[in-house]
Q: What sequence folds into this?
């Protein structure tokens, strides 16, 4: 049994080092700021007029801004890799040997192309994770996650909101996977 420096330790994605990718800060935060401003305006209108419709619209806009708040966190890595494995924000650190494949998939959505990284796991999730970050504090549990899990034991990560091109992310992770797995 190999002992890992991360097993049982209180670490998160900011502490792992190595290659990391964060959310893009060019134009991604602008809609979040707009929706947050609209939410604040609607709540102010509800306070001054006493109308429930303004309050409901303000709560909905504030909830949308709250859900998308991770897009504003420029200093926090969304995903990356180091010598121990690949880490994903609010998911964990996956051992290199537990990864079967890393695929870049282009998905056509309403006239646009979205890019998704699909990481196939060859081991059950419990043994594939070196560090498990899926248990989030209550205030972060309702925020956007950069990952989703499929029934085929694969982790899906949308790459279009990240600060590096999808093919560069895929190429770098594939190179690291081949190097550290051997």
A:
């Amino acid at each position: 049994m190999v002992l890992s420096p991360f097993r049982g330790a209180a670490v998160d994605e900011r502490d792992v080092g190595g290659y990391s990718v964060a959310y893009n800060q060019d134009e991604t935060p602008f809609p979040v700021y707009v929706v947050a401003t609209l939410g604040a305006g609607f709540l102010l209108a509800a306070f001054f007029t006493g109308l429930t419709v303004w309050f409901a619209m303000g709560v909905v806009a504030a909830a949308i801004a709250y859900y998308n708040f991770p897009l504003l966190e420029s200093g926090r890595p969304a995903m990356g890799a180091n010598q121990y494995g690949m880490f994903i924000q609010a998911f964990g650190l996956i051992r290199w040997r537990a990864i079967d494949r890393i695929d870049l998939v282009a998905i056509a959505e309403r006239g646009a192309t979205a890019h998704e990284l699909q990481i196939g796991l060859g081991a059950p999730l419990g043994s594939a994770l070196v560090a498990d970050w899926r248990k989030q504090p209550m205030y972060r549990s309702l925020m956007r996650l950069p990952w989703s899990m499929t029934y085929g034991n694969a982790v899906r990560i949308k790459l279009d909101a990240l600060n590096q091109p999808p093919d560069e992310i895929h190429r770098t992770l594939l190179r690291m996977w081949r190097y550290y797995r051997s």
